[in-house]
Amino acid sequence: MNISPSKLNSFLMFKLPAAYFTGVRVKYLDNQKCTVSVKHRWINQNPFNSMFWAVQGMAAELTTGALVMKKIKESGKKVSMLVVTNNASFSKKATGRIVFECNEGHKIDEAIKKAIVSKQGQTVWLNAKGVNEDGIEVSNFNFEWTFKIKD
Fold first, then answer.
1. Which of these, 22, 4, 36, lies nearest to 128 by C-alpha position?
2. Side-chain half-sphere of 102: how many Cα atoms within 13 Å?
């Protein structure tokens, strides 16, 4: 089975309903880039009339996680994946449609190759930036993913 935006969005509905019901959707996925979109609505707002930081975090993590899932599937190996560290910064109120993008598929390729060859766990930091409809960055997330080959 290929990993595609529509299949990932169905996955969200059944496995990550909090992301699905708050409007997080995968819009684009290829070997190097993933784009996820979420619109500020009543269900995902904070008391300050902007998008709750955790909703932004779900969208940002999905941009990196979808790339990781695609790369693991393409490797043909059984690889465990886990976020061990993350950090974020917020620079503007998140209102309207926010688009998160990660374009670091090459880093995942390298980490999975090293994990396969060395049989040791590997880590990689992946970045996802959230921008509003005016192209202004509203948040910036970093996730440290670990990969380990399963026996």
1. 36
2. 28
Token code pair at residue 30: 């290829």
How close are the terminal C-alpha atoms of the chain, in Å?
Answer: 22
Contact status, residue 130 vs residue 100, Cβ threshold 8 Å: yes
Give the type of residue at 72. I
- Residues whose CB falls within 8 Å of the CB of residue 15, separated by 6 or more in sequence, listed in order: none
Each of the 151 residues of the chain gets a pLDDT tens digit; together they read 589 999 999 999 999 999 999 999 999 999 999 999 999 999 999 999 999 999 999 999 999 999 999 999 999 999 999 999 999 999 999 999 999 999 999 999 999 999 999 999 999 999 999 999 999 999 999 999 999 999 7
75 residue type, one letter:
S
Q: What fold is seen in the domain 5-149?
A: Thiol Ester Dehydrase; Chain A (3.10.129)
What does the domain layout of the chain look like in residue ranges? Answer: 5-149
Angle at 28 between CA 98 and CA 81, to 5 degrees: 95
Q: What tokens does 24 get?
A: 């997080």
